[in-house]
Amino acid sequence: MSGLATADCRGAGGSPTPGLVQGIEPRIRIVMAAAFAIVAVTLQSLPLLALTISLAATLAVLARLPAGPTLRRILGLDAFMVPILLFLPFTVPGAPIAAVGPFAISAEGIHQAVQIVLTANAVVLAVLALVGTIEPATLGHALLGLGVPETLARMLLLTVRYIAVLREEFDRLRLAMRARAFRPAGDTHTWKSYGYLFGMLLVRSFERAERILDAMKCRGFAGHWFPAEVPPPAARDWAFAGILAAALLAIGGCAAAGLVAG
After folding, report:
1. Res 213: pLDDT
2. Closest by alpha carbon to 90, among 71, 104, 74?
3. Rg of the chain taking only CA atoms, in angstroms
């Protein structure tokens, strides 16, 4: 199974065209993604957050993330936050700047809503560029190399694997329904059909998971995962980490010194 973004990065001939980020050692990318997230969530200045999201966009360009799928993921995140963002201007106390009926809109509420949007988009975009382009198996070995407990790394890999299993079974069942001339509508038959679909999805996925476990046991899996040999980071890996760390330190230093107002 490909990573979140590498599956979509293909050239004109159909062959993968990885960017600069994909050539960086995975452990370096994971650590820098964590550092980026820590810096981003501590910022409150909107100009600095705009600078942070620009840095994340630069990483996305260096990783050659496909524009369409990446934009859909970002918009999906923003759509999930819409209900919260709509209430913040009315619920956060502060100086009122407008009113909708009996409800006042505060400047602090708008500031906090914009801050949340910029922070979330910057972090997600950076994680997609740095971590989302790592193959799941490589990601697991990199996490083990960073000292993450084996159980947690194994749970991550199995979760990724079973999400793919659920998607495959769902596509197969949906295709079978379409082959039987099923057309969704707003009637009782449609809702009952969807209920049967998700019930059968759980049953088929459970059976598929058992077959996967049997296959793993046949290949010697006994509850322990043996990490692969990972070469040490090269000079370009350290250079990439140093440049990105310097940019994050500069942004964090400006925030700490209060050089850029919110």
Report:
1. 80
2. 104
3. 23
CA gap 80, 87 in Å, rounded: 13
Q: Is the pLDDT of residue 141 over 70?
A: yes
Read off the pLDDT of residues 51-87 as tens digits, 9 standing for 90 and up.
Answer: 999 999 999 999 999 988 889 989 888 888 888 888 8
Contact call for residues 59 and 130 (beta carbons, < 8 A): yes
Three-class secondary structure of residue 19 per DSSP: coil
Two tokens at 63?
Answer: 């990783």
pTM of the model: 0.74
The residue whose two tokens read 């999906």 is 76
Pairing of strands 103-106, 96-100: antiparallel
Q: Render 192-246 in DSSP notation, one character per residue.
A: HHHHHHHHHHHHHHHHHHHHHHHHHHHTT-SS---PPP-PPP-HHHHHHHHHHHH
Domain boundary assignment for the chain = 6-134+231-257, 149-218
**Could you tell me which of 68, 69, 62, 59 has the C-alpha nearest to residue 17?**
62
On the question of pLDDT at 26 being above 80, the answer is yes
